[in-house]
Amino acid sequence: MVSTAPLGGMPAWWWAGCAHLRDACPAFLKNALHLHAGSLQSDEMYSLSLRHNHNGHPLDSQTTTDVLRYVLEGYNALSWLALDGSTHDRRSCLPLHVQVLMQLYHTAAALG
Q1: CB of 31 within 8 A of CB of 1?
Q2: What string of H, E and C letters represents the secondary structure of 21-55?
Q3: CB 62, CB 52: distance < 8 Å
Q4: Chain centroid offset of residue 71 CA
Q5: Is the preceding omega at residue 58 within 30 degrees of 0, hence cis?
Q6: Which of 4, 26, 96, 99 could cross-link with 81 by S-S, CB 3.0 to 4.6 Å?
Q7: φ, ψ for residue 3, nearest 5 deg
Q8: Are strands 27-28 and 2-3 parallel, antiparallel or unpaired?
């Protein structure tokens, strides 16, 4: 994922392997999708894929790229929920819930 918005206040350990990219613009993030099929066997997964309706929801797709695209577009939309009042741009390219987790992380680090 490439974004012109900054990452925001990430912890120092985040940048351990690439400190030179801390203030880089655009920001490059690697994303992965890990699927968990539970107790389904491979033949059951195959039979489910044969019955799949291709006009359904993107999360029901059997194509990993469709699902990942849907998730990343949702994350992008959620990143627009936190705007900088002076620049009228996103504070971070990360979704709002991750930004809140980073605020909690920094608060806990300051207290401990």
Answers
A1: yes
A2: HCCCCCEECCCCCCCCCCCCCHHHHHHHHHCCCCC
A3: yes
A4: 7
A5: no
A6: 96
A7: -140, 140
A8: antiparallel
pLDDT tens digits, one per residue of 26-85: 888 888 877 666 655 555 454 555 455 556 888 888 888 888 899 999 999 999 999 988
Side chain identity at residue 14, one-letter code: W
| Secondary structure of residue 87 in the 3-state scheme | coil
Alpha-carbon torsion angle 106, 77, 93, 64, nearest 10:
100
CA distances (Å), origin 53, targets 38, 45, 62, 69, 107: 21, 14, 10, 18, 46
Structure-token pair, residue 51: 């019955």
Residues in contact with 24: Cβ distance below 8 Å, sequence separation at least 6, in sequence order = none
Which helix (H) or strand (E) element contains residue 2?
A: strand 2-3
